[in-house]
UniProtKB/TrEMBL annotation, chain A:
Highest taxon in the source lineage: Archaea
Protein name from the UniProt record: His-Xaa-Ser system protein HxsD
From TrEMBL, chain B:
Origin: domain of life: Archaea
PANTHER family from the UniProt entry: ANAEROBIC SULFATASE-MATURATING ENZYME HOMOLOG ASLB-RELATED
Name used for this protein in its record: Radical SAM core domain-containing protein
Record-stated family: Belongs to the radical SAM superfamily. Anaerobic sulfatase-maturating enzyme family.
SUPFAM superfamilies, sorted: Radical SAM enzymes
CDD domains assigned: Radical_SAM
Gene Ontology molecular-function annotations: iron-sulfur cluster binding; metal ion binding; oxidoreductase activity
InterPro entries recorded: 4Fe4S-binding_SPASM_dom (IPR023885), Aldolase_TIM (IPR013785), rSAM (IPR007197), rSAM_sf (IPR058240), Sulphatase_maturase_rSAM (IPR023867)
Cofactor annotation: [4Fe-4S] cluster
Keyword terms, alphabetized: Iron, Iron-sulfur, Metal-binding, S-adenosyl-L-methionine
Domain Radical SAM core, residue spans: 76-302
Length: 107, 457
């Protein structure tokens, strides 16, 4: 991988391989990011969850490989923020849900 | 003395707004802001900041607690808006139909009487004594007999509940018999679409022979001949509407309408399929919207009042923390909390836009009421739309804004959107900034006039 990005493009076989640090992006974040791109690419998540995750993206319909990899990286950040914020706000969201539950589960 | 959590928004060269996360706010000068940052706040400023709840004291803490209670009170009220879709057929073929309605000649898209009965029996399990039942679709008048069945069934239903009837219709299937029946049976609250003058309206909402003339006719006739007091209108804005801001406002004025609600087209249902033809960027919409507001300001100053509803709604929020008064402008949003949408086949969805997407189904009318509204999908919607899983609560507009998981999912394929790319987010930011700017401009008095007599900001 070059210093400026975390992916390698294989033009001849039309896929891009991303290397992801599992200490920065958890498996949950990686799966969430992958899920959003399921319509656009065939995706394999592999590697060692303790050391390095490897994600292979093969575009479904003529998608540019660099664009696809960049889009995946954007979603990694998006879900990393989402996971972080959700953890911080877990209690208050649970309170919202408890209150809605009480309101709607009347006898 | 303890500072509350607040955000700073620069209004102009020497004016800053300090906004708390429940929406209490005040304006300060640059000098005053610097004194706050340096913790050298003069007594006069201290008093003002305390009254506006920027500073926390034992005296104002109960009031701040009340503000939080108000902001989230809709969590305790139960569903107050039940949207019943007697059919998904429609005689129009609107370019942006989020329900992606079916042609009126097709079969298999109507609510039968058995499902209608089950729907009402389901709604009747609500603990609320008062609620709204709103007919939508498709075009609800395409299955008028089911509407009549429902209203007659409710008339004899026990225990008695206080139902406010509402209908959203394109009015093209309206006739004298229907209008008379609706008035007689207290369906007094009607709403329709008016996208602008004929060249705009008929382009967006094609019908053989034109749909604009039908709307114009019935807007007048329903009031004059049948005694309906007010017919609400929504103006959907598409790419085609953008050059006609002035004409769209004038059309509303010429038809005697007191206000305009220019809703940006949203990428859902048929609109998503037609996005290349009708879509626009957030910036393009914001430019259009500001022209509409300016036009409304100008008319109001000339003694011909016309209110722009989004700027009014923002101004109302700035007046003080109130309980959520609109399902789409609260956090959590009203989906599966303040409203629900019932399909012709008895499936229940979080809201009227949610009905376009299977992900937002929360149950069916064959289930118990409590089971549906406490289902994982319903509760998930509440958690998602609280926006607490996003960075929204780090945004200065958090108190006034809201988040729509339905739009996020439809436009970005995920209910967790990339906010920087989220059209709703960009449009709202632009709108809040604009209203604040207007509050400290020569247009302030017009905004106050729209708010009503005796109101201040």
């Amino acid at each position: 991988m070059s210093g400026s990005n975390n992916f390698e493009i294989n033009k001849s076989e039309n896929f891009v391989l991303l290397s992801i640090n599992p200490k920065i992006y958890s498996l949950g974040v990686v799966f969430s990011a992958a899920y959003v791109l399921l319509e656009k690419a065939f995706i394999v998540v592999d590697g060692n969850p303790e050391e390095q995750l490897v994600v292979s993206l093969q575009p479904k319909k003529g998608k540019n490989l660099t664009e696809l990899a960049n889009e995946f990286n954007q979603q990694l950040i998006n879900f990393a923020v989402n996971f972080d914020q959700s953890a911080r706000t877990k209690q208050i969201r649970e309170e919202f849900i408890k209150q809605a539950f009480l309101t709607h589960s009347h006898k | 003395m303890q500072l509350n959590k607040f955000f700073v928004h620069k209004i102009n060269k020497d004016k800053y707004a300090l906004i708390t996360d429940v929406g209490n706010w005040t304006d300060v000068s640059k000098k005053e802001l610097d004194s706050i940052k340096e913790n050298k706040i003069e007594k006069q400023l201290q008093k003002r900041l305390e009254s506006k709840k920027i500073i926390l004291t034992n005296k104002n803490k109960p009031s701040i607690q009340k503000d939080y209670t108000n902001l989230f009170s809709h969590l305790t009220h139960g569903v107050s808006l039940h949207i019943v879709n007697p059919t998904m057929r429609c005689n129009l073929n609107c370019l942006y139909c989020y329900a992606d309605s079916s042609p009126i000649t097709r079969k298999g898209f109507d609510m039968d009487e058995e499902t209608a009965k089950k729907t009402i029996d389901f709604i009747w399990q609500s603990p609320r004594k008062n609620f709204v039942i709103e007919f939508q679709g498709g075009e609800p008048l395409a299955n008028f007999s089911t509407i009549q069945f429902i209203i007659n069934y409710v008339a004899n239903k026990r225990p008695k509940k206080n139902v406010h009837w509402r209908m959203v219709s394109n009015l093209s299937l309206m006739d004298e018999t229907i209008a008379t029946w609706l008035k007689k049976n207290n369906v007094n609250d009607l709403c329709t679409s008016l996208d602008g003058p004929k060249k705009v309206h008929d382009y967006n909402r094609p019908l053989h022979g034109g749909s604009h003339s039908k709307v114009v006719h019935w807007l007048s006739s329903l009031k004059q001949d049948f005694g309906f007091k007010n017919i609400g209108t929504l103006c959907t804005v598409t790419k085609h509407s953008l050059p006609f801001a002035r004409e769209i406002v004038e059309e509303h004025a010429n038809l005697g309408l007191p206000d305009i609600t220019p809703v940006p087209v949203r990428s859902i249902g048929r609109a998503k399929k037609n996005w290349n033809k009708i879509g626009f960027s957030a910036d393009e919409y914001s430019i259009f919207w500001k022209k509409v507001v300016e036009q409304c300001f100008a008319r109001t100053k000339k003694g011909k009042p016309m209110t722009e509803q989004f700027s009014l709604m923002i101004a109302q929020k700035l007046q003080g923390t109130k309980p959520a008064f609109h399902a789409c402008f609260s956090k959590p949003c009203g989906g599966a909390l303040m409203q629900a949408s019932y399909q012709p086949d008895g499936e229940i969805y979080t809201c009227d836009e949610g009905k376009a997407l299977p992900l937002f189904k929360i149950g069916t009318v064959n289930q118990k009421y409590s089971k549906v509204f406490t289902s994982p999908n319903a509760l998930n919607m509440i958690s998602l739309s609280s926006s607490l899983g996003l960075l929204c609560n780090e945004c200065k507009w958090t108190a006034y804004c809201c988040f729509c998981p339905v739009m996020a999912y439809s436009s970005q394929n995920s209910p967790i959107p990339l906010l920087y790319n989220n059209m709703d987010c960009k449009i709202r930011q632009s709108q809040f900034e604009y209203v604040f700017e207007k509050l400290f401009s020569k247009d302030r008095s017009t905004l106050l006039q729209w708010l009503g007599k005796g109101k201040s900001l």
